[in-house]
Each structure stands twice: as structure tokens, then as C-alpha cells.
Design goal:
By secondary structure, this protein is mostly helical. The chain has helices spanning 37-41, 49-68, 81-94, 107-113, 132-144, 148-174, 177-188, 191-196, 203-230, 252-265, 271-292, 298-324, 327-331, 355-372, 374-377, 430-450, 453-466, 486-501, 517-544, 551-557; strands at residues 8-9, 12-13, 98-100, 120-124, 397-405, 420-426, 506-507, 513-514, 548-550. A hairpin with a 5-residue loop joins strand 7 (506-507) and strand 8 (513-514).
Length: 564
């Protein structure tokens, strides 16, 4: 690189003003030289600690204001809130899910909205998802009552916290506060994530726990490599090569990731695919770290000293956590299928399994049969969508609609003969999703070609939240399931935008640093893209928030027939 030189002091690369906005690859590539191994294993974090948290909290506050704005409206059960909000209150009141009155149709919903909470039958209910998400909804109902604000409070809170987590995770991955802030801002203004943060469904909690688990794994990667880097200061045995490297059997961040994965599976079973894939990925990180240290037969040795503890920390901890989430069901004899084992004697190896857990296994079989059986395979829904179209928003879903609002109704200022409507559409911000789809392709290419682990995190997270749904496309599935994909899509997009930005400074032979022309152009391109995404979000805001719109204004936001 002409006119640029690495500045070396005591065998290390002296860090310059580029510390503030570390290059995306996490390296100091100055004059074509790589930093020493110790610095490559654990690149220094940005030194703008205060600025990093100010940016994080400012964007998180903005995301929270957006999500909590008029959260209690509309004052009705929106879409599947009719199931989850009532199941959550049943767990809160009885400790297990009960059936609710259903005659005449909608009687329970009307009674609750009128303030009458005596809507449950004494019979238990077969609930077809695990209980974590419903317990989280129940926490909001405990704090604020069985009303629209109460059952939507926790989704809004955890949707907001997902933004915070993503900022800190991407900042750690890239060593750049700027790129972390871009990721958080983009997630804050995604239409799908925004809508899912404002309704009492389970998927926003699933997205949170998956991002939390990923964040813990990134922290574990840094925690581990920092300790490996410390061994470089010690003498090397065995003729100049390390035999194993540092033993790290108990890794707190990896155990925390196992807990988060268990809670994710306790929200929806689909999290198991993400757990499995990241388990493989983190093992590859461990092998790579030991190989970089010069360990012989790194794969075999890492399988023993890293792989087995990782299985315990991730899989077994997740399994124990998941089982613990069923404590309410296990403690209540009246819960659905709880007494199944009493009338079905055990045979063979199952004789050593306590009856409560045999009944719980039978319950799981019934739930799986519901999700894969003939009943649901033959069901249809006007908003069902093929997962192949999710990355480009081929078929979004409408959660609520009020049609034919007459002129003169508050907010409906149209001439006689025309009408207005109100809708809540679970629609991703189009420019963000389409840009994200391109970024994912670029991230895959860069992961394969450069072996940059950061792109692997985004790709593995996205693929495991998307591809498994193709096995179930014969039953009704919906675009809003893709809310778990969007944090990883935004992660990939932020990484690519970091590439577009380029390095913040170059260090000249004179010792001075200067902004590069590429940086100036990159800043303009990235800034323009982010502004356009924000404006796009503002444009679709009325159809995300149940605003009264003239019919023609609504149609102007339905860019494709498949969106209607």
C-alpha cells in the first residue's frame, strides 16, 4: 500500500485513531502486515467505552419509544393473542393451561375486554407450544393486569432489549461502535420486528433468546481466546510446539449460552436447529484457536478438551433448562395428560423413568402430532406463505383489519363515496429486507472466500432460522416466523456496510493519520442507505400501527398484489 507503513513498537502494531472505529476484519492491516498472533487471537476492544454505551442506550431508547407508543391500542385481541394472552393468564392463575369458554364464538375475548376474567373451564387444555413465552407474557399481565397493555408489555420490552443486545454483539464482533450502532438502528426500524414487539405472540421471545445465546457465544469466543493469548507469554514445551494449549473446561459464557438456548427451545422447538448448528460452529472456532497456537493434531485434541465440555455446556445445560421450564406442568396433577402414565404402565427401559416425566414425553408426542398430523396438513389460511419467499417479503401477513370506515369517522377525511380502513400488517421494511438479502449472499461468499468467522455467525443464524421450515411447507406457515431471521440478516448487512465504509484512517510514513477517500465515499453510501431505510419505515408506519387511512393511501403501500 503506497505511502502507508505499519508503525511497530516492541514487536506490536501501535494502534492509532483507528481504534475508535476498528476495521471490520478486526485486524490492523497497515502496510500489508498482520499484527502478531497474540493480537489476532484477541483484538483490542474499542476504547470509546462511554461513547459506546451512549450510542447503545440512545438507539435502544428510540426503539423502546417506538415500540411502547400507544401499545394498548387497538383494544382487542389481535390475531393469535386470543390464544397466547389467555393461556398466559391461565398459567398465572392456575399454574397450568385451562380451556376457556367458547360459546358463543368469541365469548371469552369479549368478557375479558369488558373486565370479566372468569372465562376458564375446569378442564385442562392441550397447548401446542412450550411454556416459556407464555410465562413471559404472564409476567406483564401480573404487573399491569389482564388487558392489552399487560399482555403486550413483555413483547415490547424484549423486542427493545433485542436491539440493545444486537448493538453490543455486533460491536464486539467488529470492534466498531459505529457498525454496532448501524445494526441496532436498522433492527429498530424493521417493520416486522416492530410489529412482533407489539403483539402477544411467542416469536419475539424466540428471537430474543436466540440473539442472547449468540451474544454469549461471541463473548465466550473472546473470553477463551484472550486466555489462549496469555499462554503465548509462557515458554513452549515439546520442541517448539504446544501439546494441547490451555485447558478451559468451565466456560461461564458458554454455560450462559446453553441456558439461553434452553429458554429458546422452551419458547418454540424450532430453536433446536440453531443450537445444533452453533454447537458445530463453536467447535470449529476452538479447533482454529488451538491450531493457531501450534497445537499438533488440533482437531482430535480439541474434540476432547473443548468438544466434550461444549456438549455439556450447550446441549446438556439447554436440556436441563428446557425441562425446568415445564415445572408448572409437572407440579400440577390437573395439567393436560399429567396422569397419562398412571393408566399406561411402563415397559422395558421406560420403567426407570418417573411417571411424571413419562407423561411429559407423551404430551410432547401429542404436540408433535398436532404440528405434523393430517389435520394441520390439510388446513389452509389466506395468509399462509412459502418460506422460499420470506427473505424478499413475498407474502407478508395481516394481523388485523377494519374495512369500510365511513367518511366523517375520526381520521377518515375523504369525500363522500370513498372509505377508509385500519390495518396492522406484519410487513418487514422492504428496503432493509431486500438489501439484507443481497448482503446475505455477499456474506456467504466472503465467509467461504476469506474464512472470516463473523460472516459465519450471520449465515448460520439466518439459515437455521429459515431452512428448517421448508420441511413443513405442506402445512400453513407464516411470514411472521421470519422475525427470528431478521437480527441475523441485519448482522450480515451491518458487516457488509462495514466493508463499504472501509478503514477509518491510514497511517502515513510521517506518522500522521488521514481519512481515506474510500472512507468518505463509503460514509456517503452507507449513510444514504440507512436514511432511506428509516424513511421507508416511516412510510409504512401507518399500516404497522393501525392508523386510519384512505383506501388509496393503503393501496399505495401495498407494492405487490401478494401483499394484499
Amino acid at each position: 500500500m503506497a505511502g502507508v507503513a505499519a508503525v511497530i513498537e516492541d514487536g506490536t502494531v501501535r494502534r492509532s485513531e483507528a481504534d475508535d472505529e476498528h476495521e471490520l476484519l478486526g485486524r490492523d492491516v497497515l502496510g500489508g502486515r498482520l499484527p502478531p498472533l497474540k493480537q489476532r487471537l484477541y483484538p483490542a476492544m474499542p476504547r470509546d467505552f462511554d461513547g459506546g454505551w451512549i450510542a447503545t442506550l440512545a438507539i435502544t431508547l428510540m426503539a423502546g419509544i417506538l415500540r411502547f407508543w400507544h401499545l394498548s391500542t387497538p383494544v382487542k385481541f389481535v390475531f393469535d393473542e386470543t390464544y397466547y394472552a389467555k393461556d398466559a393468564f391461565s398459567l398465572l392463575k392456575y399454574g397450568y393451561a385451562r380451556q376457556f369458554i367458547d360459546q358463543p364464538e368469541g365469548a371469552a375475548d369479549k368478557a375479558i375486554l369488558a373486565g370479566n376474567l372468569d372465562v376458564f373451564k375446569p378442564t385442562p387444555s392441550l397447548v401446542v407450544h412450550p411454556e416459556v413465552g407464555k410465562w413471559m407474557i404472564a409476567a406483564g399481565e401480573q404487573l399491569f393486569g389482564m388487558n392489552t397493555f399487560g399482555w403486550r408489555f413483555m413483547p415490547a420490552l424484549f423486542g427493545t432489549l433485542t436491539v440493545l443486545l444486537l448493538i453490543r454483539t455486533v460491536r464486539r464482533m467488529t470492534r466498531s461502535t459505529l457498525i454496532g450502532a448501524i445494526a441496532g438502528l436498522l433492527l429498530a426500524v424493521d417493520g416486522l420486528h416492530f410489529v412482533m414487539s407489539r403483539v402477544a405472540l411467542l416469536d419475539i421471545f424466540l428471537a430474543f433468546w436466540l440473539v442472547a445465546a449468540t451474544s454469549c457465544l461471541i463473548c465466550d469466543r473472546d473470553w477463551t481466546r484472550r486466555r489462549h493469548a496469555e499462554t503465548l507469554d509462557k515458554p513452549v514445551e515439546d520442541g517448539g510446539r504446544r501439546t494441547v494449549g490451555r485447558w478451559l473446561l468451565v466456560r461461564p459464557w458458554r454455560i450462559a449460552a446453553g441456558v439461553c438456548f434452553g429458554l429458546a427451545c422452551g419458547t418454540k422447538w424450532s430453536a433446536i436447529w440453531t443450537l445444533a448448528a452453533f454447537g458445530v460452529l463453536v467447535f470449529a472456532w476452538d479447533v482454529g484457536a488451538r491450531r493457531a497456537l501450534g497445537v499438533r493434531f488440533a482437531f482430535v485434541k480439541s474434540a476432547l478438551v473443548d468438544g466434550i465440555p461444549a456438549f455439556v455446556s450447550l446441549v446438556l445445560v439447554a436440556g436441563v433448562t428446557y425441562t425446568a421450564t415445564w415445572t408448572g406442568w409437572l407440579l400440577h396433577d390437573n395439567s393436560y395428560d399429567h396422569n397419562w402414565a398412571a393408566s399406561n404402565p411402563a415397559h422395558g427401559i421406560m420403567k426407570v423413568v418417573p411417571d411424571d416425566f413419562r407423561s411429559l414425553l407423551e404430551y410432547h408426542k401429542e404436540v408433535y402430532a398436532f404440528h405434523t398430523g393430517d389435520y394441520i396438513k390439510h388446513a389452509t389460511h389466506p395468509y399462509q406463505s412459502n418460506p422460499a419467499g420470506w427473505p424478499i417479503i413475498a407474502r407478508p401477513i395481516g394481523f388485523d383489519a377494519v374495512n369500510d370506515i365511513k367518511p366523517g369517522t375520526p381520521g377518515c377525511n375523504v369525500p363522500a363515496g370513498q372509505t377508509c380502513l385500519q390495518v396492522i400488517s406484519a410487513l418487514g421494511t422492504p428496503l432493509l429486507w431486500w438489501g439484507g438479502a443481497l448482503a446475505l449472499i455477499a456474506a456467504l461468499v466472503l465467509w467461504v472466500s476469506t474464512r472470516d468467522w463473523r460472516f459465519g455467525v450471520a449465515i448460520v443464524g439466518f439459515v437455521t432460522c429459515w431452512v428448517p421450515w421448508f420441511a413443513y411447507d405442506q402445512r400453513p406457515i407464516f411470514f411472521f416466523y421470519a422475525v427470528t431471521m431478521i437480527p441475523f440478516t441485519v448482522m450480515a448487512l451491518a458487516l457488509i456496510l462495514g466493508k463499504v465504509l472501509g478503514p477509518a484512517r491510514t497511517v502515513l510514513r510521517t506518522g500522521l493519520s488521514t481519512a481515506t477517500p474510500r472512507r468518505l465515499i463509503g460514509t456517503a453510501v452507507v449513510g444514504a442507505f440507512v436514511v432511506l431505510v428509516v424513511l421507508n419505515f416511516a412510510y409504512i408506519w401507518p399500516i404497522l400501527t393501525d392508523q386510519v387511512l384512505p383506501h388509496q393511501d393503503w393501496l399505495s403501500r401495498m407494492w405487490f398484489k401478494s401483499w394484499i
